[in-house]
Amino acid sequence: MDYKRLKLKIKEVFDTQEAFAKAMAMSKTALNQRLNGTVEWKTSDIARACDLLNIPLADAHLYFFALKV
Predict the structure, then answer these.
(1) Which of 6, 19, 44, 52 could form a disulfide with 14 if both were Cys (CB 3.0 to 4.6 A apart)?
(2) Count of Cβ atoms closer than 10 Å to residue 61 Cβ
(3) 39 in Cβ contact with 30 (< 8 Å)
C-alpha cells in the first residue's frame, strides 16, 4: 500500500507523526509499522484516524488502500 497521501494529511493536521501517534493512543513504533506496511491497519484504527484527520469514511480508501504504482 502507498500511504503517501495519509502521511501528508498527518503532517497537515498534526505536524508530526509522533503527535498523531499520541492522539491515536499508539506508540510511534506501532504507527511507523502501519505506515511502512509491516503491520495492517485495524478497522477501528482506520475509523479513529479518519475522525482525527477529518477524513470522511467514504474517502478512507484514498488514504488507507492506495496501491503503489
Answers:
(1) 19
(2) 10
(3) yes
CB 28 within 8 A of CB 21: yes
- Alpha-carbon distances, residue 62 vs 4, 14, 18, 52 (angstroms): 10, 19, 22, 16
Query: Could you tell me the sign of the dihedral formed by the alpha carbons of 27, 33, 35, 39, in that order?
Result: negative
Site of grid cell 491497519: 41
Q: How far is CA 20 from CA 24, 47, 67, 68, in A?
A: 6, 14, 23, 23
Record the cell numbers describing residue 47, joined without a space: 475509523
pLDDT in tens, the chain (69 residues): 899 999 999 999 999 999 999 999 999 999 999 999 999 999 999 999 999 999 999 999 999 998 887
